[in-house]
Predict the structure.
Amino acid sequence: MKIKVNNKEKIMPENISVSELIKLLNYTDTVGIALAINQEVIPKTNWDNTNLKSGDNVTIIQATCGG
């Protein structure tokens, strides 16, 4: 299925969960990561139970240290 991740089109398996997406995108540490699907923030506690659908627009924001 086709989804957008941070405005870049990606092909992903059907019925992939948010947790699986994060792993496929090689995010090894999820501390400081926020994720929204179609502009709705998804709490980390729901990542395992939230599946993506074709056409979803995913935004991933990772906090960084520094100033």
In short: Helices lie at 18-24. The two ends are 39 Å apart (CA to CA). The first strand starts at residue 2 and ends at 5. The longest helix spans residues 18-24.
